[in-house]
Amino acid sequence: NAGVMQNPRHLVRRRGQEARLRCSPMKGHSHVYWYRQLPEEGLKFMVYLQKENIIDESGMPKERFSAEFPKEGPSILRIQQVVRGDSAAYFCASSPTFTAEAFFGQGTRLTVV
Amino acid sequence: QKEVEQDPGPLSVPEGAIVSLNCTYSNSAFQYFMWYRQYSRKGPELLMYTYSSGNKEDGRFTAQVDKSSKYISLFIRDSQPSDSATYLCAMKNGTASKLTFGTGTRLQVTL
User: Fold this and answer.
1) Bridge-partner residues for A35, per DSSP?
2) For residue B99, what pLDDT band results from cuts at 50, 70 and 90?
3) Pick from B49, B94, B98: CB nearest A56
């Protein structure tokens, strides 16, 4: 059973470009979470999705950030018009139910130049 | 005040020592408590998952939760150099979807 798969592992974007981060949850997991980790900081919750639904986006910046988890395919975190402050490691996690433990992917390291 | 406080370390111990890692929290609604291990430039790896107060043991790892004191601990027995990593505590309440993390404690186990 493969773990949570994230790609790309590293992504470099120029200021103003769009970044798309993909996450395939573990088999049998329908709950997906996105977290952001800045250097020397803990992980910060961004958004929680189930198939085709955003359940909780209380941690998402109001502008430029969006997330989706379509019926088919991976979950996507999209950052439009990236700025240098968006440089961070973005982690996806999945779980089979709301209260079960969450398993994390290896992350996507976004660098904005 | 942060919801979850964790000493950032670094904590340096000799091989074979018992390691104690701790977190305190302020939100009495937290019910689920987790410890993750994160190696440099890798994703967090779940070590322990506990519900409410009590102890849980898994191999060399023991997790303790004291809800009355809002204090959780992770003990590592017979520490190994391969245990050198950052340890993150995380917690959530029964209705929230998100995990609230501590900032992590960096552990170094020396030969």
Assistant:
1) A45, A91
2) very high
3) B98
Provide, as residue numbers in chain A, all residues whose Cβ is less than 8 Å from the Cβ of B10: none
What was the pLDDT predicted at B7? 86
- Whether the pLDDT of residue A1 is over 60: the answer is no
pLDDT confidence of residue B79: 97
Least confident of A33-37, A76-80, B48-52: B48-52
CA distance B42 to A6: 12
| CB contact (8 A) between residue A45 and residue B98 | yes
Note which residues in 10-69 of chain B have CB less than 8 A from chain A.
Answer: 32, 34, 36, 41-46, 49
